[in-house]
Structures are given as C-alpha cells and as structure tokens.
Amino acid sequence: MYKILIVDDEDKIRSLIKKYADFEGHQVYEAGNGMDAVRMCREESFDIIIMDVMMPELDGFSTVKEIRKTSQIPVIMLSARGEEYDRIHGFEIGVDDYVVKPFSPRELMMRVDAVMKRYGSRTEDHDVLEKDGLKIDFTARRVSIDGENIDMSPKEFELLFYFASNRNIALSREKLICEVWGYDYYGGDRTLDTHIKLLRKSLGKYSNLIVTLRGIGYRFEG
C-alpha cells in the first residue's frame, strides 16, 4: 500500500484516479493546485505524487521544482500534451514517468507500481546500508558521508539505491537503463555514463565502490 498524493485542478480526474487507487488499497490524498501540493509535502510525507502539468497559480513543472527543494519523492506527471519537449523538460527536473491524457487508470496504477519498484520502496522496515562512513537510508531516501547529508539528483538517488540493492552483482548497462529509467526509455548509453560520473562525484572518497566491468557494465562493491 502506498501513500499517494493526487494533484489536479479537475475534480473528475482526481476522483477517477482515487477510485482506482482506493480499490488497490492505497491511501489517497488530494490537492487541487500546485500551491496546496507544495504545502502538503512540507507538512506530510508521501510515497509518490501523481501531478497534472496544466494548473492555475503554479503549474506542475514549477510545483515539482519547489517540492524537490525539500523532498526526492517520485513523481508521475499527467498532461494533455504529449510533445517531446514537455517529456524531456519533465525528466530534466526529476520527473519519474510521464502519462498523456486521456489515460487508462489501470495502466496509471501499473506505472505507480513500476516507479515504486524502481525506487526500491520499503514501507514497513527502515532499511539502511552502511559501509564505513557511507550510510544509505533506503526508507528515508537519504545518503550521508561521515554524518553529512549528500545532495543528489533524483536519478542519482535511484541509481545508487538500485546499485546498493544489488550489491556485489554484475549489472549490465541494458539492465541498469531498463530498471532505473524504465523499459520504454528512448535515450542511450550516454545518459547512463553521465549519471555514473555524477554519482561517483557525489560519493567522493567512496566513488571506487562503483566498479566498471569492461564490456559488461558495473558492479557495486558492498
């Protein structure tokens, strides 16, 4: 069961999503605009947000940017437009998936499950991995080195969590792209290489935990 925040200025859309989310046993909260969504995320924690793009006062992209200042919660964007620019812009600011209206509520719930699995969501146990001074808190989505929190992009978090969840296992480039970006990701290996480079920079003295396997991919030394 996930704690889901639905953000859309259309009552019918929120009700439709809530109906299917309730049926699957999820705990649902609603916001009619971006300002309310930002406020709610400051006051409560959620597992995932389903966010409309076109809203009054504060659009979905701006809302995500504000929420990202204090939380790395996964976000699925909803939009009546399917232009490539919108999708790319959404992914650049840390959106995890993009669904074009009209959509299938059943498929949307499947996408929620897929995103949460990629995040390695653990709603019951507080799961923490420690390696010397490196601490990876899966439940709180927090990484620290020698007690100091490390600021990472959403995709860096997701990539590190997937590595750590599959430590000491050789992971092919194709496997990493599929699991972290999704099976329908249309980007190339360059995106993975760039994020590996950024992740190693964020890990500092622990960057050597990510080992390059020539001709195969990578392995996280746990």
TrEMBL record:
MF-aspect GO terms: phosphorelay response regulator activity; transcription cis-regulatory region binding
Biological process terms in GO annotation: regulation of DNA-templated transcription
Segments forming domain Response regulatory: 3-116
GO CC field: cytosol; protein-DNA complex
Keywords: DNA-binding, Phosphoprotein, Transcription, Transcription regulation, Two-component regulatory system
Record lineage: Bacteria, Bacillati, Bacillota, Tissierellia, Dethiosulfatibacter
Alphabetized PANTHER family for the sequence: DNA-BINDING DUAL MASTER TRANSCRIPTIONAL REGULATOR RPAA (PTHR48111:SF21), REGULATOR OF RPOS (PTHR48111)
Protein name, UniProt field: DNA-binding response regulator, OmpR family, contains REC and winged-helix (WHTH) domain
DNA-binding residue intervals: 126-222
Organism: Dethiosulfatibacter aminovorans DSM 17477
Ranges for domain OmpR/PhoB-type: 126-222
4-aspartylphosphate: residues bearing it: D52
Stretches assigned to coiled coil: none
Domain of life, per lineage: Bacteria
